């Protein structure tokens, strides 16, 4: 299969129109970034991960998710603050998120169909209390009497972790893999107190 080539459009060119007779598959990721608020200025289309958007746009103040789900970051290489985006329009996301800087990188989140399983640990390197989760948890303190989560192992599915109970505060996207130290990932001093699955119904 040929690689998907990102496209950059000038301000004078309107955004691409999708053929209404051919609906966009829900699991196909498609996001369009714009230089200015309210979808103005030059735009950049992305249908996969992008580690550094500065190659395409010098700034980004609005975006539109045409299909799929994405995680966006305010630093290159998927670092810094993160925010989850699903299909919709974000005319002034910096005010919405409370960010002082714009989007610098993004990941497309593949649709997952099947079971979800994640083990969370009280300490780094899979130490301390361990609990296995297969569904959403709005408070690890209430459910497990666990006041911190510093490492995890995601076996199945894609998850969002939040620094406050009830899915509030800053978040982190977790795909299958081992995460031995959130501190080493740039989350020093940040606790994760609730977790939820990224469901296929969100697409």
Automatic annotation (TrEMBL):
PROSITE patterns: CRYSTALLIN_BETA_GAMMA. The keyword Repeat applies. This is Beta/gamma crystallin 'Greek key' domain-containing protein. Keywords: Eye lens protein, Repeat. One of its GO terms (biological process) is lens development in camera-type eye. Belongs to the beta/gamma-crystallin family. It comes from Oryzias latipes. It holds the Pfam family Crystall. The gene is LOC110013316. PANTHER family: BETA/GAMMA CRYSTALLIN, CRYSTALLIN, GAMMA M1-RELATED.
